[in-house]
Amino acid sequence: MTDGSKTVEAHRTPKACPVTVFLRSTAKARGRQSGDEMGIFKPCDIRGVVGEQWDTPEARRIGEGLGRLLTRRGEKRVFVGGDFRRSTPRLKAALIEGLRRSGVSVCDLGQLPTPAVYFAARQYGCPNVAVVTASHNPAQYNGVKLMVAGQPGVPKLLEELKEEYEQLGSMTPPGSRADCESLDVVPEYERWIIPTVRQFVDQGLRRTGRSPLGDEDGVGQVGTVSDAAPERFLGDRRWRTGP
Questions:
Q1: pTM of the model as a whole
Q2: For this structure, is 135 an active site residue?
């Protein structure tokens, strides 16, 4: 949140938050490649520029690969959300299509802060999460954060997902679709996060006389939870925004 007068820092995502997984592909004039020729899978993540390195075909393929991986672990349901980047809606829809095609049921949480997705998964007892987001990266990027069976994206998990991705190839035949339901968890998340933010602010005020707070460039933190003014989070505490 800024109004041109003072820096406002972010309330950081909990340390236990899974490793960010950023998706890459190959989409410009040279055409799309079917495997990992560009080295898109790193030890703990995948990352890429939308429209240049990946787009909806790759998102769909990643979704189906993830679904197969979940099925092998006996998991049949995943919570899916996304941030507020312009590319997120279409990429999330493609990811969900791939997941459903693999036989995994999806709970679509819509667009909301990344911590809210993990909050929902915990509240409703689902150990599997996929969030379309590129966190702090520039606007042309997008990606996916993963949690599988309660575990974050780690090298072994990413290697398995890479194998599934490459085995599927660039085209996959249509299959039966698992269920997809929608859930609005934002009101419940707000009831939890607002007291948490106020406690964070009060701790800062006691230590330094001021408390920095931010919205992580509008893609992942409290600034995107609702349209409420800062007073909703800070109560009658004095606040300023700016660079």
A1: 0.74
A2: yes
In which residue are the tokens 């379309």 written? 132
What single DSSP character describes residue 41? B
- Give the residue extent of every domain in the chain: 20-184
In the chain, the percentage of residues whose pLDDT exceeds 90 is 40
Kindly report the CA angle at 148 between 109 and 15, in degrees rounded to 5? 80
List C-alpha distances in Å: 76 to 87, 105, 126, 199, 235: 27, 6, 10, 37, 42
Q: If pLDDT is split at 50, 70 and 90, which confidence band does 243 have? A: very low
Active-site position among 25, 87, 135, 211: 135
d(CA 18, CA 154): 9
Please tell me the distance from the alpha carbon of residue 172 to that of residue 160, in angstroms, as a whole number.
Answer: 18
To the nearest whole number, what is the mean pLDDT of the chain? 75
Nearest to 34 by CA among 162, 146, 160: 162
Instruction: State which CATH number among 3.90.1150.10, 3.40.50.720, 3.40.50.360, 3.40.120.10 fits the domain covering 20-184.
Output: 3.40.120.10
Q: Using 50, 70 and 90 to split pLDDT, how confident is the model at 85? A: very high
Question: In angstroms, rounded to a whole number, what is the distance separating the alpha carbons of residues 233 and 240?
Answer: 13
Section 192-212 average pLDDT: 73
